[in-house]
Recover the amino acids of this structure.
């Protein structure tokens, strides 16, 4: 399947928040023949436009290109690199990991004090990321400075692995699953105008979604995501968030949004009619671009469809390939069925736009 | 990378969890064969390379370096398909979150040690240590299939491909003590260029990580006049005691202490100076935590020298050594063996 190949290639590319270019370049080369127009905006979002064959709502599809990573913050006299995290990474995930630094991808590893040398508190305590450094093998500061600069972005250096029963292990599944799915979705033409937005800097606070939705001014937005999943034994059902292999997950509420009830019902209807498995996300933690896009302009009806990803925000996240395939199916069928669901876009729209009246320019 | 570096990368890709070294023994024997008169694998899977001396009445030198590595052992296969595990060797539970592994079941199965995403960690658990008991290996199968493919007691090795870094350094799993095994090969290569009177037994040993076990039978089985042990010592890092750690790239660490034979140790240090082989002194007040402690009291006692290769981040997946130190270790040991004056 082409989408899965694209996903693996996308996962192997580095696109830590603020440095999404390698990911964007790949996506652009794969979508430009399928869309009518595209542009890269000032924040680095790739916005594509695909004209509809008839009338309908203006729909924005969002997938964020960035991934969590690190940034070099200091080079020590020993030639080691101090760092801080870009996005949310748990401390102990960092220990003993392989990384690539900067545009040249200088290889390094995150060292850890050997258990033999730890004192009692260190042995029984938790990992403290402030004590971790990246080691590129440099003898001293001068040698390290010849290879790396303060401010360089650091990505995990992990390649995708197919394993188990239809599973894929890879870094950055959050949100390359969304990017790969959106590439697939844009290959088809729909009755109404579609804006496929590949956005930047989701992981540090939903930045790209804000500027992208301003340019698009959508009526409806669907966010394609990779979401939390911890379906391990000893976990209470609601603490699992989602379950791997049980279908794409639909958000009802999280820290950033309460999704539009009508749009959610529409997606559930479509899933039932087409016998596509789905599940509801059972935690309200985390946030998505839906939260930003919802409050764009005079308001947008939003929903999120996500692939459950175990060990998200680590270099070894795991998904079931069927969830990814079903997310693409569900998103496509949802779009195809939208024109018939007039209640979603025929009512509730307001013509009041003081920004425009004041001479502000909307891009589209 | 030079020849020794490439060899070390190859060695670092083998899996030989302590007690299950049979997976790698033949591959190590192959590395010894071109330089030895004979290579044997004993029933513990110690790999013994024999290189005959040129004297009519040769003495014997025994050089050991362990080739086992730390790993995990499966203790339960849950109905959900997730695996519980314990440590095989000194594994730090803090250092294995979000790690790739191979479960050596009916076939080799890829898996990962999962961690909870930060979004789902309740505030009261933030900053708390996670116990090995609470971790699981995810092999991506349901319970039925997992039970078919995996048994309790199957060993698990870490996946961490050797990574070349600056200054001839390599980071990866099992540099403790594949770098020692690489030094054994260096010794054999050097000895091929030198004349040596003594028979040399170069042995890659098993189960060191479990308590120096392989060395017990080897030091009994081979009657040696001199023992040389090659292992790793702690490489320097900012947050560790500076007198217990040694810089990478500054040469082989020669141990000095009660376990180590004083006469031989002095002589090998003198040789290092004469030959201009970079070395550093590693003070060892106790039993060294290495096979040297076994040599010392084997049979009627074997005078023993301990040579160590500095390795940063020991017992993590990114143990780091400098290939120059491996070469220095091999050269020094080989030259000492060749020039050894028998009493």
């Amino acid at each position: 399947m082409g989408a899965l190949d694209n996903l693996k290639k996308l996962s192997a590319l580095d696109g830590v928040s603020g440095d999404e270019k390698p990911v964007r370049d790949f996506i652009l080369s794969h979508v430009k023949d399928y869309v009518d127009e595209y542009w890269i905006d000032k924040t680095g979002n790739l916005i594509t436009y695909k004209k509809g064959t008839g009338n309908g709502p203006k729909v924005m599809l969002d997938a964020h290109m960035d991934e969590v990573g690190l940034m070099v913050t200091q080079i020590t006299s020993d030639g080691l690199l101090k760092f801080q995290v870009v996005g949310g990474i748990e401390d102990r995930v960092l220990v003993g990991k392989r990384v690539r630094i900067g545009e040249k991808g200088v290889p390094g590893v995150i060292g850890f004090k050997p258990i033999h040398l730890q004192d009692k508190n260190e042995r029984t305590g938790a990992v403290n990321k402030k004590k971790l450094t990246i080691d590129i093998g440099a003898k001293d500061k001068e040698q390290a400075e010849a290879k790396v600069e303060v401010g360089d972005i650091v990505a995990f250096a992990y390649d995708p692995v197919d394993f188990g029963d239809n599973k894929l292990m890879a870094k950055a599944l959050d949100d390359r699953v969304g990017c790969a799915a959106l590439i697939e979705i844009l290959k088809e033409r729909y009755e109404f105008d579609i804006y496929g937005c590949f956005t930047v800097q989701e992981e540090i606070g939903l930045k790209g979604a804000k500027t992208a939705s301003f340019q698009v001014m959508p009526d409806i937005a669907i966010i394609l995501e990779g979401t939390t999943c911890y379906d391990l034994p000893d976990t209470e059902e609601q603490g699992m968030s989602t379950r791997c292999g049980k279908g794409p997950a639909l958000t009802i509420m999280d820290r950033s949004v309460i999704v539009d009830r009508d749009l959610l019902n529409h997606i559930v209807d479509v899933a039932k009619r087409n016998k596509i498995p789905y599940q509801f996300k059972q935690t309200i933690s985390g946030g998505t671009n839906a939260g930003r896009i919802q409050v764009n302009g005079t308001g947008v009806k939003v929903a999120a469809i996500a692939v459950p990803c175990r060990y998200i925000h680590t270099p070894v996240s795991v998904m079931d390939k069927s969830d990814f395939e079903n997310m693409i199916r569900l998103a496509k069928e949802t779009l195809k069925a939208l024109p018939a669901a007039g209640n979603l876009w025929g009512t509730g729209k307001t013509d009041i736009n003081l920004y425009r009246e004041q001479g502000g320019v909307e891009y589209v | 990378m030079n020849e020794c570096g490439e060899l070390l990368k190859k060695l670092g890709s083998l899996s030989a969890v302590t007690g299950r070294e049979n997976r790698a023994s033949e591959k190590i024997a192959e590395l010894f064969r071109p330089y030895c008169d004979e290579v044997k694998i004993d029933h513990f899977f110690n790999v013994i390379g024999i290189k005959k001396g040129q004297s009519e009445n040769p003495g014997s030198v025994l050089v050991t370096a362990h080739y086992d590595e730390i790993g995990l052992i499966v203790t339960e296969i849950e109905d959900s398909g997730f695996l519980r595990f314990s440590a095989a060797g000194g594994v730090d539970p803090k250092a294995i979150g979000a790690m790739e592994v191979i479960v050596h079941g009916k076939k080799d199965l890829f898996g990962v040690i999962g961690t909870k995403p930060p979004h789902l960690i309740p505030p009261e658990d933030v900053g708390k240590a996670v116990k090995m008991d609470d971790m699981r290996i995810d092999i991506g199968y349901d319970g039925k299939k997992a039970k078919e493919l995996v048994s309790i007691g199957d060993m698990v090795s870490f996946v961490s491909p050797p990574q070349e870094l600056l200054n001839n350094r390599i980071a990866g799993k099992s540099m403790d003590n594949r770098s020692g095994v690489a030094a054994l090969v260096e010794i054999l290569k050097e000895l091929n260029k030198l004349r040596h009177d003594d028979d040399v037994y170069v042995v890659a040993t098993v189960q060191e990580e479990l308590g120096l076990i392989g060395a017990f039978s080897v030091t009994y089985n081979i009657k040696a006049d001199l023992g040389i042990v090659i292992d790793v010592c702690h490489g320097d890092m900012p947050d560790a005691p500076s007198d217990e750690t040694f810089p990478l790239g500054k040469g082989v660490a020669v141990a000095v202490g009660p376990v180590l034979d004083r006469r031989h140790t002095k002589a090998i240090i003198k040789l290092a100076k004469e030959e201009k082989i970079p070395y550093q002194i590693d003070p060892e007040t106790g039993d060294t935590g290495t096979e040297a402690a076994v040599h010392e009291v084997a049979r009627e006692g074997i005078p023993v020298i301990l040579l160590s290769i500095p390795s940063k981040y020991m017992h993590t997946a990114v143990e780091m050594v400098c290939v120059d130190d491996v070469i220095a270790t091999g050269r020094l040991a080989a030259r000492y063996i060749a020039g050894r004056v028998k009493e």
Observations:
- Chain B touches chain A through 64 residues (CB under 8 Å).
- The first strand of chain B starts at residue 38 and ends at 41.
- Chain B has eight helices and 17 strands.
- The CA atoms of residues 85 and 283 of chain B lie 36 Å apart.
